[in-house]
From TrEMBL:
<dbReference type="InterPro" id="IPR008271">
    <property type="entry name" value="Ser/Thr_kinase_AS"/>
</dbReference>
<dbReference type="Pfam" id="PF00069">
    <property type="entry name" value="Pkinase"/>
</dbReference>
<dbReference type="InterPro" id="IPR000719">
    <property type="entry name" value="Prot_kinase_dom"/>
</dbReference>
<keyword id="KW-0723">Serine/threonine-protein kinase</keyword>
<feature type="region of interest" description="Disordered">
    <location>
        <begin position="352"/>
        <end position="423"/>
    </location>
</feature>
<keyword id="KW-0547">Nucleotide-binding</keyword>
<feature type="binding site">
    <location>
        <position position="44"/>
    </location>
    <ligand>
        <name>ATP</name>
    </ligand>
</feature>
<feature type="domain" description="Protein kinase">
    <location>
        <begin position="15"/>
        <end position="274"/>
    </location>
</feature>
<dbReference type="InterPro" id="IPR011009">
    <property type="entry name" value="Kinase-like_dom_sf"/>
</dbReference>
<dbReference type="GO" id="GO:0004674">
    <property type="term" value="F:protein serine/threonine kinase activity"/>
</dbReference>
<keyword id="KW-0067">ATP-binding</keyword>
<dbReference type="InterPro" id="IPR017441">
    <property type="entry name" value="Protein_kinase_ATP_BS"/>
</dbReference>
<keyword id="KW-0808">Transferase</keyword>
<keyword id="KW-0418">Kinase</keyword>
<dbReference type="GO" id="GO:0005524">
    <property type="term" value="F:ATP binding"/>
</dbReference>
<protein>
    <recommendedName>
        <fullName>non-specific serine/threonine protein kinase</fullName>
        <ecNumber>2.7.11.1</ecNumber>
    </recommendedName>
</protein>
<feature type="region of interest" description="Disordered">
    <location>
        <begin position="281"/>
        <end position="317"/>
    </location>
</feature>
């Protein structure tokens, strides 16, 4: 986050910020104390677009505060309680109840998928939360495992960040040229630019149920273009683990929002499964009855979802996107896959580890490491980390020359700055990171050098990136003390041959402690590029965010 947020200790003369406990594309979450009521709270600092004019910025803040207060009116046992909405230093803050417990993303990563009964229990809780919000005219727009908390003592399921995607100004691509969301969990109508309603949140719930049952979204792919193609075109294949509640999953993952299972029927079917233990069946004639649909009324349709039915296909009609939606979505996928693609930045969701001001500095790794996993996935683990938030921004027709827009530099997300390195390349680095050249390697270091972003360019090597990374892996024990859990994966980066290397090691001193490295190497335009991030093992989630942003915004010399 920017330096302003780092310097704030008490906001609105009431809330004392004590420890940062999460960071993502929409803002930073702090553990705090309400000094008036003497109780712990969570405070979310919303990061607004700093490229706007003063008048535009003021309008966005006013809209943010207005819509945040609307979200605060939602009262439901499975929606996080919003205590207050304040403005401090021309920046909005949302004060919420502090939930002691991890997210579903963390639960899956640590303990693996859940069984069908637990998935049904969680699904019922989230459907109740969604129905309450939709009745009030509020959409979530970013439903994913990282935005669902499970209270440690009670196992209560709590939906967080309700309406934050909308509050922060996110829209569809065709409205303003920008899109904020998590593509693995985003409905195809949002991808295609159609006006969206409650049905879009229900699609996201279907993808979330699949992740709960199998460990990952059914739309997970190795690239952003691949994810978009999977959402709008590919055959939808729910995981085998979804068989006990398959009619619900298939009904929620119906591409045509007019035919999608509504919240009331999905909840009824899940309750039937919990009560009987048998796979529920959708009635032979079923009419969606979703209330407060934020679109023009659509004609009802019927369906039948027998047990063991084959997965839904990609046919536009019936059961697919309307013809216009397919065409628009296909054009979107093609555009993102082309050379003229706009910026695509992979950001970690909220829920990262807090800062450790006592972390000891350490020397940068002497080994140029490379490797990036597909978004939100740690090689060698069956369960995903939090799904990434993806920001896709079309470059403006014209922009004044500045640090963030000079040449071909890609726009940095909030909390980062774009730098054009003297060596010719550009990338986005977190605010406060400073440049430190070390021979052929260029580092951008956090204060105290806790986090290290490294870049190296070289002539292509025989065998390509995969051979280079395999050799680095073989040399790992000699170059990195305590080297372990090394893994090299062949992949691609923006259509170029690439290899991912991820490993853990002991650091260069006992004071530095164990570290984890994410590293990507690829060939492009006759050069070999290497971008990596090294961080303490306890801060790997935050490091993955920095890594995804660095790789996603990197522009070669």
């Amino acid at each position: 986050m920017g330096s302003q947020g780092e310097n704030v200790r008490v906001i609105a003369d009431r809330y004392r910020l004590e420890e940062r406990i999460g960071r993502g594309g929409m803002g930073v979450v702090w553990r705090a104390t309400d000094q008036l009521l003497v109780r712990p709270v969570a405070v979310k600092e919303l990061l607004l677009d700093d490229t706007l004019s003063a008048q535009e910025s003021r309008s966005q803040r006013e809209r943010t505060l207005r819509e945040a207060r609307a979200v605060a009116q939602l009262h439901h046992p499975h929606i996080v309680v919003v205590h207050d909405v304040v403005e401090h230093g021309e920046r909005p803050y949302i004060v919420m109840e502090l939930i002691e417990g991890g997210s579903l993303a963390e639960r899956i990563a640590e303990h693996g998928p859940v069984d069908a009964q637990e998935a049904a229990r969680i699904g019922i809780a989230l459907l109740g939360a969604l129905r309450r919000a939709h009745d009030a005219g509020v959409l979530h727009r970013d439903l994913k495992p990282a935005n669902v908390l499970v209270e440690a003592d009670t196992d209560r399921v709590v939906l967080t960040d309700f309406g934050i995607a909308r509050i922060a100004g996110a829209t569809t691509l065709t409205e303003t040229g920008s899109f904020v969301g998590s593509p693995e969990y985003t409905a195809p109508e949002r991808m295609s630019g159609d006006r969206t309603g409650p049905e879009s949140d229900l699609w996201s719930l279907g993808a979330l149920l699949c992740a709960l049952l199998s460990g990952e979204s059914p739309f997970r792919r190795d690239s952003l273009g691949g994810i978009l193609h999977a959402v709008v075109v590919d055959e939808i294949r729910p995981p085998a683990q979804a068989q006990p509640i398959l009619p619900v999953v298939r009904g929620l993952l119906e591409r045509d929002p007019r035919r999608r299972l509504d919240a009331a029927e999905a909840e009824r079917l899940l309750r039937e499964f919990l009560e009987t233990g048998r796979t529920p069946r959708v009635p032979a004639v079923y009419t969606p009855t979703q209330r407060n649909v934020l679109r023009h009324p659509a004609p009802s349709s019927s369906r039948e979802a027998p047990d063991g039915a084959p997965p839904a296909t990609a046919a536009p009609r019936p059961g697919g996107l309307p013809a216009r939606g397919v065409l628009v979505a296909a054009a979107l996928v093609a555009a993102l896959a082309g050379a003229g693609v706009a910026t695509a930045v992979l950001l970690m969701s909220d829920g990262g580890d807090g800062d450790d001001p006592h972390a000891s500095p350490g020397p940068p790794s002497a080994t140029a490491s490379t490797g990036v996993s597909r978004p939100g996935h740690t090689p060698g683990r069956s369960a995903p980390g939090p799904a990434p938030t993806v920001t896709v921004t079309r470059p403006p027709d014209s922009a004044p020359a500045s640090e963030s827009t000079t040449g071909t530099a890609r726009r940095a997300p909030s909390g980062y700055r774009s730098v054009r390195d003297p060596d010719g390349f550009s990338l986005a680095v977190p605010e406060g990171f400073t440049r430190s050249p070390q021979g052929v390697r260029i580092f951008y270091m956090s204060p105290g050098e806790t986090f290290r972003i490294g870049v190296r360019t070289a002539e292509p090597d025989e065998g390509g990136p995969l051979a280079v990374m395999r050799k680095a892996d073989a040399d790992g024990p000699a170059d990195n003390p305590g080297y372990r859990d090394g893994r090299v994966t062949e992949t691609s980066h923006e259509g170029h041959p690439a290899a991912l290397w991820e490993f853990t090691w002991n650091g260069f001193s006992a004071a530095e402690g164990p570290r984890h490295t994410y590293d990507l190497c690829w060939e492009q335009n006759g050069r070999m590029y290497d971008v990596w991030v090294s961080a303490p093992v306890g801060r790997a989630r935050e490091a993955k965010e920095y890594f995804d942003v660095a790789v996603g915004t990197f522009v070669p010399a």
